[in-house]
Structure formats: structure tokens, C-alpha cells
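Support request from a user on the community tier.

User writes: "When I paste my C-alpha cells into the form, the page sometimes reloads and wipes my input. The last time it worked, I copied everything first. Here is what I submitted, just in case something in the input itself triggers the reload:"
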């Protein structure tokens, strides 16, 4: 098999922040990992998370309202298990591939709400209201959206908040990509209507460290802590030290965010030269979605986007993710948070593959 460019996974390929490396070395040299960390998270990390939200919005946050989880994914599981067990969660579609199963495992039923093409496939209160039933307990909003990179503007977010609050539907904010979105947007605010889930994977380039958190009101926090205690228990002392250091002092973050923005622009330009794959223009995030319907017309089996991904990995040497895993069939998702030369080479390979596929079909139909 030829070498593969793997752009299927959602990770920011960057050097690890210096502050995290130093913190890890410190914890090891002081031999601080023989005991369990506090179950709900080290106070220093919970204070750093609270400080992070205070910096973003001047909002009212307290370390007692923060619970540390084994990644944002576990945070979403805990939050859903507490606020929506036995009920329905409205999930704007397209959506992160893992929401449906995370919710089912947490005892809730995901109800998909297709976004409007006119707004970049985002939802609004009218669409949510049309999907609401007496069983609706929560709605999840993720911005920038994984996979499309569409971004909710402040007025739509405010309208969704008002709608949810009025009807007693809990808003779960998945804040994991916050820095890759709208720079000026106010941070979220946990309260009795809203639960915020975040993590260090994307913005701080620490996907492998597996630290996330839930910020919620005291009642939800108490219940979330019960779920943490009986599922993962405390998160690794090492991991918590790395993230504490980074939240307090990630001097590389603004550059990282600018770099990812440049990479996104680079990928859009590079992919514009690939025939039959149309770029769905993102406003933020770390991904690019490609509409593959014109390419699928070349080979009817490629309408199955999972099959098309397997063919592209095998024959073009580029691995992407099938849009159907995100509720966006006929599309391909590409992670763009990788160096520009890798993106250029991926685009070149895809162009070679598509041109050859087109030529073969043209010859056959002559
Ligand atoms: N939410 C979204 C929208 C994501 O894309 C991801 C990871 N791809 C997560 C949550 C989970 O983040 P973590 O790696 O911290 O579990």
C-alpha cells in the first residue's frame, strides 16, 4: 500500500504547548502520581477552567460548578445522562458523528433537526420548535459546527437560548471548538437552563491528553459528579496538570488559531482545483466539507460515501470521513489542521484520482 495522508480524524497537528510539557515533567519528577486525583478534578484545574470562562465573557463562574471529565466526550455523556435521561435531545443536523451513540448510551433519544441550506445548515428556534415534543428535555448546540464549520451568530444563539429557556428545554453548549469560530462572540454561561461542555483537545492541541469538563448549576453538577465517580473515576493526575498549565498560560494559542485559519484558507484554495468535489465554504472550525455528488455521478456505487472514502484511501492515498456519519450523506469531511504542504499534496492526489476516474468514464461512454 502507498503512503496514506490521513485527514479523517479531528485533531490539531501541532507541537505540544511548552507549558504542558513542563507541567508533565514536574509532576513526574515530584512523584505525584502514586495517588488518585480528587474525583471531580484538581481544584487548580477547576479554578483555571472557571477563570477561562470569566476571561471569555466576564461571566460568573466558580470552581465548585466545574467537574473535570475524561475528555469532552465523557463530559457530554455525563451531561446528557443527567439532563436528558429517559427523554429526547434535539440534535441539529449535520452533527458530530458521535452525538447519537453518546446520547443513547446516556439513556436519551437523539432527534435530528436538519439545518436550513440557506443558513449553512444551521438551525433556528422555528426548526427546533417544529421538532419539539413533550419528551424533549434538551437541545445540543456546537459552534463552529463539526463537520461543516458553520458558525452560529450571536443573535441566533440568543434566540435559541430564549426559546429553550421559555419552554424548559435545557441547552447543552458543546464549546470544544470555541476559538476557531466567531472571535468577538461572548462566552457561554452555565445556569439552571444551560450546561457547558468543553475540553482541551482542539484549542490547546491536546487531544491525546483526554481532559474535558462540565460547567453547570449546583444540582446538575452534583449529579454529573455521581456519573463521573461511577464511570471513569478521577482523570489522570498527569493529564490534569498539563491542562492546568495550558489554561493558565498557553501563550501559543493565538498563533495556533491564526495558523489553523490560514490552513483552512489554504485547503479551500487547494481543493478549488479538484474537479467534481465542491467545497462547502466553512466560516470556522478545523474541517472542510466537500460535496461529492458530481463525483458520485461518475460511478453510481460512489453514492455510498463510506465506499467512496475507502476507494479514495486505497486509490488516491487520502483518507477522509464519510459525510453520512455526520448526517450529511454525499459529502466528505477533511481535517485541515495540518501543515499546508500536506493539504496541497492531498488536493493534488485527489485531483489526479478524479481526473483519471472521469477520463475512464468518458472513454466508456464514447
Ligand atoms: N464535541 C465535538 C463537536 C467534537 O468534534 C469532539 C471531538 N472530535 C468532541 C466533542 C470530543 O472531544 P474530546 O476529544 O475532548 O473528547
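"...and here is what came back when it finally went through:"
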Amino acid at each position: 500500500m502507498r503512503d496514506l495522508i490521513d485527514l479523517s480524524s479531528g485533531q490539531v497537528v501541532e507541537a505540544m504547548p511548552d507549558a504542558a510539557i513542563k507541567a508533565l515533567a514536574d509532576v513526574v519528577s515530584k512523584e505525584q502520581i502514586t495517588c488518585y486525583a480528587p474525583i471531580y478534578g484538581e481544584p487548580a484545574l477547576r479554578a483555571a477552567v472557571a477563570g477561562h470562562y470569566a476571561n471569555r465573557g466576564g461571566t460568573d463562574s466558580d470552581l465548585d460548578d466545574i467537574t473535570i471529565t475524561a475528555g469532552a466526550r465523557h463530559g457530554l455523556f455525563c451531561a446528557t445522562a443527567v439532563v436528558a435521561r429517559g427523554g429526547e435531545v434535539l440534535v441539529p443536523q449535520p452533527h458530530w458523528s458521535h452525538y447519537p451513540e453518546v446520547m443513547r448510551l446516556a439513556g436519551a433519544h437523539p432527534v435530528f433537526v436538519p439545518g436550513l441550506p440557506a443558513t449553512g445548515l444551521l438551525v433556528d428556534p422555528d426548526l427546533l420548535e417544529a421538532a419539539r415534543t413533550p419528551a424533549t428535555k434538551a437541545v445540543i448546540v456546537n459552534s463552529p459546527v463539526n463537520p461543516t464549520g458553520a458558525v452560529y451568530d450571536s443573535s441566533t444563539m440568543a434566540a435559541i437560548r430564549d426559546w429553550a429557556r421559555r419552554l424548559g428545554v435545557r441547552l447543552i453548549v458543546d464549546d470544544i471548538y470555541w476559538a476557531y469560530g466567531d472571535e468577538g462572540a461572548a462566552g457561554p454561561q452555565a445556569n439552571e437552563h444551560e450546561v457547558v461542555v468543553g475540553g482541551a483537545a482542539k484549542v490547546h492541541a491536546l487531544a491525546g491528553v483526554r481532559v474535558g469538563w462540565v460547567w453547570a448549576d449546583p444540582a446538575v453538577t452534583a449529579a454529573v459528579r455521581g456519573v463521573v465517580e461511577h464511570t471513569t473515576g478521577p482523570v489522570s493526575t498527569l493529564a490534569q496538570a498539563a491542562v492546568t498549565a495550558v489554561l493558565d498560560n498557553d501563550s501559543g494559542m493565538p498563533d495556533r488559531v491564526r495558523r489553523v485559519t490560514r490552513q483552512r484558507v489554504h485547503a479551500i484554495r487547494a481543493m478549488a482545483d479538484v474537479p467534481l468535489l465542491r467545497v462547502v465554504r466553512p466560516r470556522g472550525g478545523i474541517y472542510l466539507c466537500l460535496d461529492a455528488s458530481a463525483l458520485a455521478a461518475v460511478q453510481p456505487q460512489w453514492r455510498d460515501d463510506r465506499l467512496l472514502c475507502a476507494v479514495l484511501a486505497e486509490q488516491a492515498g487520502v483518507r477522509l470521513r464519510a459525510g453520512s456519519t455526520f448526517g450529511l450523506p454525499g459529502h466528505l469531511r477533511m481535517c485541515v489542521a495540518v501543515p499546508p504542504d500536506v493539504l496541497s499534496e492531498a488536493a493534488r492526489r485527489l485531483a489526479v484520482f478524479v481526473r483519471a476516474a472521469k477520463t475512464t468514464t468518458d472513454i466508456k461512454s464514447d
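Agent notes: The reload is a front-end session timeout and is unrelated to the input. Residues 41 and 68 are 5 Å apart (CA to CA). The pocket of 4'-deoxy-4'-aminopyridoxal-5'-phosphate is lined by residues 10, 71-73, 96, 142, 146, 174, 176, 199, 201, 207, 212 (CB under 6 Å). Escalated to web team.
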